[in-house]
Fold this sequence. Notes:
Blueprint: H1 3-19, H2 32-62, H3 68-78, H4 83-95, H5 124-134, H6 139-144
Amino acid sequence: MTLLAVCNAAPLLASNWQRMGDRFGANAGVNLSELLIVLGVCVAAAAAILLIRFGTQWWEVNSTKPNPARLHRELSSVHGLTGRQSALLKTLAELCEVEEPAEVFLRPELFAVRSLPEELVDRSDELDELAAVLFADMPAVTGRLGRGGV
């Protein structure tokens, strides 16, 4: 923008600035039709958000199509895992190139120290704790997953 354009726009901005307050004070008024339109738009937006939210939840619960992400979430919930623990299991599945993330709930050998990917070696303590939670009913397996590996 050039200096000339700014100089030409200055009086227009000043007059608009002065008139901006004309609708406040004694001149202020609420038009009922405008208020109803704003209220209607707000109600419609809230209804759309709720409809999308409940529709998505219904679809996820009632969908018969296999959903690996949902299965992993449900297994994490059943085992009482935190979001961080669940994310660690997903990372383990990705790094071990497992087809489905839920397979980590069935394959204790993935938690062995010797078979851990390099990226997860520093988190082996967390993985040991997870293995103890996931495979608690299998003492022969959890005993082999410690520091000595499988």
